[in-house]
Amino acid sequence: MGCSSSSAKDKKSEKVLRATLIIQNWYRGYRARLKARQHYALAIFQSIEYADEQSQMQLSNFFSFMLENYTRVHEEDPKLASRLFESNVQDIKDRQDYVGLVEVPDSYEGPRLQFPLSFPDIDLLIEAFKKQQILHAHYVLEVLFETKKILMQKSNFTHINTSPSKEITICGDLHGKLDDLFMIFYKNGLPSEKNSYIFNGDFVDRGKNSVEILMILFVSFLVYPNNLHLNRGNHEDFMMNLRYGFTREVLHKYKIHGKKILQMLEEVYTWLPIGTIIDNEILVIHGGISDSTDLCLLHRVQRNKMKSVLMPPMSIIGDNASNLKKNKLGVTINMPDKTEQNDSFSEQLSKHEWEQVTDILWSDPRGRKGCYPNTSRGGGCYFGPDVTSKVLSKYQLKLLIRSHECKPEGYEICHDGKVITVFSASNYYEEGSNRGAYIRLSFGTSLRFFQYQVTKATYSKPLHQRVNTIESSAIKILKERIIGRKTDLIRAFQLQDHSRSGKISTTQWAFSMENVLGLNLPWRSLSSHLVNTDKNGDIDYMSSFQDIHIEKPVKEAQSTVIETLYRYRSDLQIIFNIIDSDHSGLISMEEFRAMWNLFSSHYNVHIDDFQLQSSVRIPYASDPQLSGSGLQG
Amino acid sequence: MADDREGTVAELQKKIKEAFEVFDRESNNTVDVREIGTIVRSLGCCPSEGELHDLIAEVEEEEPTGYIRYEKFLPVMTKVLLEKRYRPIPEDVLLRAFEALDPAKRGFLTKEELIKYMTEEGEPFSQEEMEEMLAATIDPETNAIHYKDYITTMMIDDS
Q: Which parts form a coiled-coil structure per UniProt (chain B) (predicted)?
């Protein structure tokens, strides 16, 4: 009958409904937990990245400290002093000096560029790089030489006009990820008179194709100097390149001419414009602004004097000054009468100008009002929505487009729509970590955002696989940090462990980790990956160090030395690279010791000289990263 | 007893704070309202979409701004955790739910069947949710989801 059959039907559909609800509910919960884990992994990557940048800035303080002690260093070890302070870069005026001396052999099968460059050269390069060919040093040098010539003619800020038929595309950080550049050109077309681009800095470091990216961008720039615009990023800086991989990439790909290429690059970087202004209303710069940003001053500064953010300016008094005075950023020192040294110090920005440029290249927007020193990175500042409003309206601008920060979706809008971050390196931290994006705009129309994600596989991995990948990667680098601070961590744990049971509460563990490592992370949520917790919720803190150890086990007595060297390995590598001015990969024991003495007194690291001597050979030989700057002696 | 409970509350609140901060992009103690679902679920709860909607209403400002402030979120979430509300689905209940959709007891659901149920019944999936679930569950050779095996593997991964 009608009633009974419909009620049976109702019952069945009710059963189906309930089952569906259960499955949907469960799946949404599962998916959300995956997304949360993804966020935790990104938080780990980001906090470690910024902590690294902070220590990079500390390194600059170290160099300032060395300059302060210049007189003493010079007296004790004139050779070391000249290695450190002498400018390596000769003024590259004569093309013959560089390009002319490098010949391309007939056997070379890579791409051959024809100067003056034209559109086919862009295509030629792209096809060659897709086949993983290496551009010959001759062409690299020639491109750099020509690029510098044209860049010198550009102002600090390029003013551009757009119209609905002349849109412009803005790309953010690429960081040596060639696949992302290919993806952008594939989706958006190659640069041309009708297809303008702005590349907003950080073309190099971290990825493995920084050279190729630079070559494609510079060649495109030479072919279309009025349509391809390049802004300087904080990684267009030879000191940053020493730490973040570009220097290594160049020296590896160009074993004979690498040094020349690096020297030319130092100069080319300084001539990159600071920013772009579109239609007199959109400011495009790499990092951000501060509450004291003075665009008029920035239009006027001699930008090529900004060699590196890590070489802050010093003021100099002549030989007759008898008093030594210190100011906040640099020092006034009594220079010995040596003309070469005077050359390297005379061409500098003023302290105020230097700070203005650093703010542009390093600052980050934040929700909090006001302007604060950017403590994560160690340079530039955090600027709030009030600062944005104030600065934009002061110069009658409507929008700030910047890059500098990795965003999961490739772009992010903040400060009430007045600030947009665009980041173009997808999978930046790890495969699956984030999308890349670019913006297309023209005057009078709304912005359009385009996103992409480059993956090696032909199909996308499901979410849980991607999350597992980035999570294990993040945990691995976090554990490396932990092992680098083992002694300090144990001391902190033991302070909390009154009963000497080897166990402390989750709160005590989280507190110690955050304090010692200086990383603001969700420790409780991460604890399951890092330590053993018993059923009472207490943590066996020594299990923080399981599963990972520095390559060769060493005697306990020397563990502090190893740890310290391991922790400072990036800084030390940079310093080695500077001392090792012929890039041979070798410095003498004496040079190392002299360096170490300065370094350790500045950082307040106290290690017995004897311990240092006997142990120093061990970690460097076994650590593959360090043996590149191998010690012998 | 009172001390224990205080300790528990303090610990819970620290957990809530951590989960909240990870989504607090601008470090100003607010999160986008669209992330609330993820935060609540990352803390181990499994509210339905309807229950989530009610929860959001509790933590929203009187005039919704699109952002949820930590000060409003914390007390509500603390209560949810203490009352052990929105408990997750046990494995056997989930299995029976799949079996209810597979009356012929084949041991699997076809891709089309899964799409139909998930996007037409109950609290339907968005296209993104559906695509993600398919990518994770469908066996490309048979174009079906063998739910028993799937549940076992996913439960381990999720814990």
A: none
